[in-house]
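re the bet — no i am not wrong, look at it urself. input seq straight from the record:
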Amino acid sequence: MKPLKSLITLFFVALFFYANSFAQGGFGDVPVYNGSTVDRYSSSQTSGFSPSINAELAKSTIIYPNPTFGELTVEISSPEIKGPIQVQVLSQTTGQAVAVERFNKMDDTEEFRIDLLQATPGRYTLMIGYGNNYYRTTIVKR
């Protein structure tokens, strides 16, 4: 029953984030959450209104180190993806957000750092938003 409760909580957190992004003016015309499956711990999924942006974000994003002991780096290398980006890290156990960061990507390649030093060890869902789309991946905190 506990995994079902966690999934339901995660769903409502994601739904709240999606609805809240539009209430606050959105991220532009198209939100995209994106990550990278750079090791055996990761799985990923894209969703939203622009498959071409999701594909571009998926192929141009690197998340490392995964697993991490504290600081996580999100690197996005694409001239087509510029503007506001939001990164959320959600506990897969509780559905609680352990990190929420907003960045403004101005250059073709940029790195963003996410501090997970205070997060307890476990599996987390990393969501990156840009426009109306999102991409998510699993990360592991050791």
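see?? The longest strand covers residues 83-91. told u. also The beta strands are 44-47, 61-64, 71-77, 83-91, 97-105, 109-115, 122-130, 133-141. so pay up
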